[in-house]
Amino acid sequence: MRIITLLGWAGAAMAAPAHSAVTATGDVGFVIESSVEIAAGPDAVYALLLTPGRWWSDSHSYSGDSANMTVDARAGGCFCETIPAAGGASGSVEHGRVVYVAPGRQLRLSGALGPLQADAATGTLDLVLTPAGKGTKVRMTYVVGGYLRTPPARIAPLVDRVLDEQLQGLKRAAEAPAP
């Protein structure tokens, strides 16, 4: 993984306001929970979840461009990213594997995100959408476990802030005026 990506995770941790929480840490993992209310219906928010290039931060991608990210919304599908190479074969990275799909209601992925991929860790990222007034509440839970070279209590707040940044990006994209 590129050093810039690692620094991007750390920089976001210092700059992003906290809208979520690390709810548990232990010797072998951690749990992050976050939620946001979005002024859009569940089906529209779900459709947007499947197009991460519209809301995921470029600085938290391997290629530097979230437009290279895709989600194949079926069990066994991939939350993947193409890494273009100048004059050569492209690379790719699997951010997560889709393990549960309930259109308009829930999307669950299994995978170690970002710098966690370099360790013997895995995670479950669960996004649950529920109607809330005239919009949608999105509840995100990320449970990580395994062997982490960085103590879970130290890395969990960084991961929390980065994932909250993505959730806030989802909200901004969903609420942006149509072009």
UniProtKB/TrEMBL annotation:
Residues 1-20 form the signal peptide. The keyword RNA-binding does not apply. It comes from the Bacteria. Keywords: Signal. CDD domains: SRPBCC_CalC_Aha1-like. SUPFAM superfamilies: Bet v1-like (SSF55961). The keyword Methyltransferase does not apply. Pfam families: Polyketide_cyc2 (PF10604). This is ATPase. It comes from Sphingomonas bisphenolicum. The lineage of its organism: Bacteria, Pseudomonadati, Pseudomonadota, Alphaproteobacteria, Sphingomonadales.
